[in-house]
Design brief:
The chain contains ten helices and no strands. By secondary structure, it is mainly alpha-helical. α1 packs parallel to α8. It is flat and about 55 Å long.
């Protein structure tokens, strides 16, 4: 690929990454609870993006086009996964509803690991991402693209995603933002979790229709 093609690909990819969606919502939601929460969630999202990018480069998008039944299976699994993320959020909200006025719980490794898993699950819940990534990549890829070049492209694209979601987490976790939104954070958690359950169920219904 020429330098111009790489620049165009990065530009198109940047626009795709910043587009609103569940990834952006979950990073904002967890960042409002604290910077480390937001960054851990952003890291999980980027790991998911990496998985889909590798799958797209490996040709999974082409496989899904000729095997639509596989996409249905992935969509159902993705819908169930997103609904599970929402259900876990609703359970956490219910368990802590009476502790809103108490001191904040310490941020432990287990909680941070849960945020990373939440970000990963949210991103992986959309199997259409691999088809979308494949469509974004297709105009820029050539048959003589070597493994080294493919790895380099994936690394650049992952770096763009990491920069965006990391910056988003840092900005949303700023004390000034938290001071304004912190009091309604439990209701943000409730709304986002309920929305994830609803969207996950809708994914399953659409896939099976």
């Amino acid at each position: 690929m020429t330098a111009g093609a790489v620049g165009a690909l990065v530009g198109v990819w940047a626009l795709a990454v910043v587009s609103p969606g569940p990834d952006l919502v979950v990073v904002l939601q967890r960042a409002l609870a604290g910077r480390r929460h937001g960054l851990a969630t952003a890291a999980g999202v980027v790991v998911g993006i990496t998985v889909w990018l590798v799958a797209a480069f490996a040709g999974l998008a082409a496989v899904l086009r000729v095997q639509p039944g596989l996409m249905t299976v992935l969509q159902v699994a993705g819908g169930l996964l997103l609904a599970a993320v929402g259900a876990l959020g609703l359970r956490a909200w219910w368990r802590t509803r009476g502790q809103r006025q108490g001191p904040a719980a310490p941020i432990g490794a287990a909680r941070i690991g849960g945020d990373l898993a939440r970000g990963l699950a949210t991103n992986l819940s959309n199997p259409k991402a691999v088809a979308f990534f494949g469509a974004v990549l297709a105009p820029f890829l050539t048959t003589d693209l070597g493994v080294g070049a493919a790895v380099s492209l994936v690394a650049v694209m992952v770096a763009v995603a990491l920069a965006w979601f990391g910056a988003l987490a840092v900005a949303a976790s700023h004390p000034a933002v938290h001071a304004r939104i912190g009091r309604v954070l439990p209701w943000v958690d409730l709304a986002v979790s309920a929305a994830f359950v609803a969207v996950g169920v809708a994914f399953v219904i659409v896939a099976l229709a």
